[in-house]
Amino acid sequence: MKSNYIPVNEPLLEGNEKKYLAECIDTGWISSDGPFIKIFEQKFAKQMGRKYGVAVTNGTAAIDAAVDALDIGPGDEVILPTFTIISCILQIVRSGATPVLVDSDPLTWNMDVSQIESKITPRTKAIMVVHIYGLPVDMGPVLKICNKYNLKLIEDAAEVIGQTYNGKPCGSFGHISTVSFYPNKHITTGEGGMILTDDENLAEICRGLRNLCFQPNKRFVHERLGWNLRMTNIQAALGLAQIEKIEQFIQKKRDIGYQYTKLLKDISCIQLPLVSTDFAENIYWVYGIVLDLKKKIDSETIIKKLSQAGIGARPFFCPMHQQPVLKKMGFFSNQKYPVAERMYKYGFYIPSGLSLERSQIDRVAKNIKLIIKNI
Ligand SMILES: Cc1ncc(COP(=O)(O)O)c(C=O)c1O
Questions:
Q1: Mutate which of 57, 159, 194 to test ligand 1's pocket (most atoms within 8 Å of Cβ)?
Q2: 105 lines ligand 1 (CB under 6 A)
Q3: Using CA positions, which residue lies closest to atom 7 of ligand 1?
Q4: C-alpha of residue 217 to centroid of ligand 1, in Å
Q5: Angle between the N-to-C axes of helices 35-47 and 17-27, in degrees from 0 to 180, rounded to the nearest 10
Q6: pLDDT score for 295
Q7: What is the pLDDT of residues 247-291, one digit of tens each?
Q8: What is the structure's pLDDT at 268?
Q9: What is the sign, positive or negative, of the torsion defined by CA atoms of 49, 51, 55, 56?
Q10: Integer Cα distance of 270 and 294 in angstroms
């Protein structure tokens, strides 16, 4: 029986998960050498329209390896959205490269691609796009810019597994693309991630980076600094079972999104996610809401009120230029990105996990209406 509390996310593990996990135990294959790893990599890469998949420990590690594999380092600049998770910027900063930020589009909440070209300098080496909350970045202009200036493209598709841009899978656009399999993602391995590419050489570099850069012939002699980012057979077993259900999962996410929109669309002074854009229909990784300034209530207040009603909710991302740790390091002083700042202050997301039930959606919507009415 479900408890009365509605968490912001709960995964759905109702397919072959138990069967494949039992196989790991029965055969004793629990490390990263087990057979599910390769099968999962191949199946997932194919699903995402890529030649190679390199399974790793989480989505952050996938981005770290992607940035390193492209030899990004001191003197290089990487353009990315300010409105994203800190995972995107960590290896850029640690490598000694310079992150260069762009603001968001106020409707899609994705990076405003019209701002990218003005940020390019002779030092720009790569653009990192991050598809936010279920709608893809407008990739057409980004691809044109990458071609025109000969830039590398890193694509963070963590939040859009199963989404497409003009019919082509998100995760198929970057020289290197990455995903996360954390339990709030469209498919989960508990913790996990994958690096995706069509470039055999880059795939080989990423396999090396994942495995401490051991060399095939001289195992303990290292030519490059790597990490231990190996995914286990147990995680891959989960992933394999999950991927069998991807279409159902996306449909369920869309149904949740449509239900919320139907129930919330008449409330004035709140902005809901777009149902679609010219190039995609939303898959609602999370169902985000941005409060209108006129309401004089910020996301922190409404999250507290929802919590008192037994409903989990989370704030939107804190933009990179407002991160204390990065400001202390001397980044982004006096830079302003008004759209992302507003989204952070007034944006929050409500329960939208795969096991959410219709009655819970109704309860969440009813409480939001009530809270806003009583302000
Ligand atoms: C856009 C994006 N990139 C990267 C990550 C990091 O993934 P992980 O939590 O698996 O490290 C997340 C996690 O939520 C994310 O939303």
A1: 159
A2: no
A3: 59
A4: 35
A5: 150
A6: 64
A7: 999 999 999 999 999 999 999 889 999 999 999 999 999 999 999
A8: 85
A9: negative
A10: 10
158 lines ligand 1 (CB under 6 A): yes
What is the position in ligand 1's atom list of the atom closest to the CA of 184?
14
Residue 294 has pLDDT above 80, yes or no: no
Q: What is the pLDDT of residue 297?
A: 87
Residue 60 and residue 67: Cα distance in Å, rounded?
11
One-letter amino acid at 323 equals: Q
Distance set, CA 191 to CA 181, 241, 249 (Å): 6, 15, 18
CA distance 121 to 118: 8
List, for residues 333-371, the tens digit of each pLDDT value.
999 999 999 999 999 999 999 999 999 999 999 999 999
Between helix 299-308 and helix 338-346 the angle, nearest 10°, is 20
159 Cβ below 6 A of ligand 1: yes
The beta-strand segments (E) located in 72-220 are 77-81, 98-102, 124-130, 152-156, 164-165, 168-169, 176-180, 193-197
162 φ/ψ sector (left φ>0, alpha ψ -120 to 50, else beta): left
Instruction: Verify whether ligand 1 is closer than 6 Å to residue 85 (CB atom).
Output: yes
The H or E element that residue 54 is part of is strand 52-56
Is there an atom of ligand 1 within 6 Å of 193 CB? yes
Amino acid at position 82, single letter: T
Quickly tell me which residue has 């300098």 as its tokens: 121
Centre of ligand 1 to C-alpha 284, Å, is 15
Helix (H) or strand (E) run with residue 246 in it: helix 246-264
Residue 331 token pair: 């980044």
Find the 218 Cα to ligand 1 centroid distance in Å: 34
> Is 58's C-beta closer than 6 angstroms to any atom of ligand 1?
yes
